[in-house]
Fold each of these.
Amino acid sequence: MVKIIGLSGSLRKSSFNAGLLRAAAELAPKACAVEIASIHGIPLYNADVEQAEGIPSPVAALKDRIAAADGLLLVTPEYNNSIPGVFKNAVDWLSRPPADVARVFKDRPVGLIGASPGRMGTAFSQTAWLPVFRVLGLRPWLGRPLYISDAGKLFDQASNLTDAATRERLQAYLAGFSEFVAQCQPVKEK
């Protein structure tokens, strides 16, 4: 069974991206489990706080969950044509201290999807994440991009993905991504 940790980059209760992540967990292939984690409770990064108090417990717990998973799925909103500040802040904390980057991120397969009410979906945000992936040593799956535009028409009032065609696209994405994650796993000796 392939285990993927999914993170939504929005803190909003009725976030399209949180709804997209819930749909991903629901539509994952049978040989894959998408576990939903959260960036809620992660404070603003401050090196003085890190030096004086260490890594905050919500950050440490999330780092352990990512390190124990086979892959990482980031579900990103797009704010001002780029990465949402709260999401980037969470990843900045997750990369601390630098000596722990390899345990959490190095060679970990990562998928990237997102929903936006705008017409371009999250194309700019997803592109802005690529240099971050490179510096962290992540292995992005680039096989099937998923930029969901006009999200207000595809989700209900409770931010559930209701559009059948978009659900099919998400399911196809997850099939490809979970296969990529499985192929990236080290061969276990018998």
Note: The first strand starts at residue 2 and ends at 8.
Amino acid sequence: MLIRKSMRTFLFMACVLSALLMSSLHAMQVERSFPEGIKRGKLSTTALADLVIDGKLLHSSVALRIFDEENRIVMPASLYVKNAPVNYLLNEMGEVHRVWMLTEEEARRPLPKS
């Protein structure tokens, strides 16, 4: 009986501790770093999941990765945006290789000098 009560207390404290840890980690915002050669533009998507940046239809690379404001990967087909500020990177073929959806603060910062 005493062991059961101790175990329940331990599990309850572990749950409380993990909840506190998760909330503090969520509150800490990690500043994202972007690679050299990035460009900035306004992204819009079409019904066919095409990428339109600054009014130009751009081809997507086979290895396209789109990161949302919280740095999670987003599938192009599930993304519908209109004039969203982004940083993007082109590959050697001129195809869009990486896209980072920007937070308001990131959009206000100037691009790093190459």
Note: DSSP finds two helices and seven strands in the chain.
Amino acid sequence: MQVSSARNAFPSALKDDAEAVAIRLTNTMGLASPSTFTVTIDGETVSIPDRVYFDEVTTRAGYSALHLSVLDCLQTRHHSGFVRERALRRILDLNTSWSAPFTVQLISEYVVEILEIIEANWGQIDERMVARFLAENPRFHALVKQRVISYWNTYYRRLSRESYVGFKLLKRLERLTVDVARDN
């Protein structure tokens, strides 16, 4: 992976760790997508690749726990939905401000099986952390909503809005933002 793509995907406190992971990946991978999505994490702007193209890292030996978390966040951007799903399962309970965009971004994608995993495991997610992330990124939050609606309309319209998992997740996100607004 391009080292700069990995470094730019995380706040400055993790840039060295992201670089170390990317350097290990350079032997097994191609490139990160030139397109990114930009969000703010604890006041810092980061640019996360829309997709990464490298072989799935299945040998996890030799990575520190932090490096594995960084790796798993990056693998949620993988071009294979199966790899994204496996990585998501490993970061659901990570509950750091820097992992939030990787989870929330998956809500705005079209792979319904991934959405179902998020919904089924919502209890592992620190809602306050997600609420802070959404409050800090209202434009990103709006984009997530637009994409859920668009993907439902394109691929899942046969399902009612009430039964489509993307809308269930949007309700959860909306409740979080209402709770934050009420508390402020």
Note: The CA atoms of residues 119 and 138 lie 21 Å apart.
Amino acid sequence: MLRRLYDWTMGLAAHPHALFWLAVLTFAESSFFPIPPEAMLIPMILAQRDQAWRIVAVCTIASVLGGVAGYGIGALAYEGLGKSIIEFYGADAKFSIFQGWYSEWGAWIVAAGGFTPIPYKVVTIASGVADLDLVTFSIASVLSRGARFLIVAALLWRFGDPIRKFVEARLTLLATLFFVMLFLGFAVIKFVL
């Protein structure tokens, strides 16, 4: 089944509207959706290595715009919507502690959330609740999300076919590692922050 899903995703990645759907997924992931953009970014770059930098640009722009939407949820609709998103990710118990760090470490928190497996949407919503300067938030988001996607794209662009063969030969292992990292990101939010 995993092989069929991989083949389907690779086919979708080469679809003429794939870039649009990547933008939609990335925007949603930055404000509320749980699936990271790499789920589409990686197969898209493997399927179209010559478009890697364009794909990264779209992914970064959509991510930052989605982050601003998450910021808006935190600033304007925390009680109605933001709180339920934070609860969904299990971060509600320590959310006030997390908010307290913003006065001293705001930009660094955004940068860490944008670059690491920590769910970025928790950071975007918390930034809005904490009223972090929107320009600071946006710059930290562009730099961290852009760097994250650029590193993935650069590796895939440079080592395209060998990486693709490596992925295809170890698909189950890599999918397992991907979900373990995703789980660890959620665990960091729930137990550490």
Note: Residues 2-192 form one domain.
